[in-house]
Write a structure and sequence with these properties.
4 helices
């Protein structure tokens, strides 16, 4: 019985790994730079359907969205339109975007996505790494979630559309890592 359980667990893990790799096929890694000459794109698509009420009776939007659940265990490149903190948790309004190497500088050009934004939550211990123009330096440096929310929301909405972020999600669709891309 124990051997059969291990096989089932192994098959499930391999299936999850395969699906995760397929989802990440076009996404750049945290150390990928524009010098590789390849553009990376997010492979996930958004649905405009609102999240259904959760089994505990909370209203739609008060829990993770359907899209966030689909991003569970993946890395996505996104735009962040807004960020807020409520009940001790940070929430981000995101949609997929595309990043391309800058033609003249060692930096990225952000190609805005289309469609609705989806709200996702961050874990309490999520790592935040920011580069210029949101951070203070060209190379990513660590910031608190509160500093990140303050810096992002202080920028006009039109400026936010030009920023891009690599987000890593845990198995429940919550953001565990935010890294802004250097853009001149």
């Amino acid at each position: 019985m124990r051997v059969a359980h291990r096989r089932t667990t192994t098959v499930r893990c391999l299936t999850a790994l395969t699906l995760g790799l397929l989802a990440l096929a076009g996404c750049g890694g945290p150390d990928d730079g524009p010098d590789d000459g390849q553009a990376a794109t997010a492979t996930a698509s958004l649905t405009s359907a609102p999240p259904a009420p959760s089994p505990d009776g909370t209203a739609p939007g008060s829990g993770p969205s359907t899209t966030a659940a689909r991003w569970a265990g993946t890395k996505q490149f996104v735009q962040i339109d807004d960020a807020r903190t409520a009940d001790g948790r940070t929430y981000l309004s995101v949609r997929p975007a595309e990043k391309r190497p800058h033609p003249q500088f060692e930096a990225w050009v952000i190609v805005p996505g289309e469609g609705p934004y989806t709200e996702v939550s961050m874990t309490e211990d999520a790592q935040v790494l920011l580069s210029v123009p949101l951070g203070d330096a060209k190379h990513p440096a660590a910031y608190t979630q509160d500093e990140f929310v303050g810096r992002l929301t202080a920028r006009p909405s039109s400026d936010r559309a030009l920023l891009g972020f690599d987000l890593s999600f845990d198995g429940q669709g919550r953001v565990t890592r935010v890294q802004s891309l250097y853009t001149p």
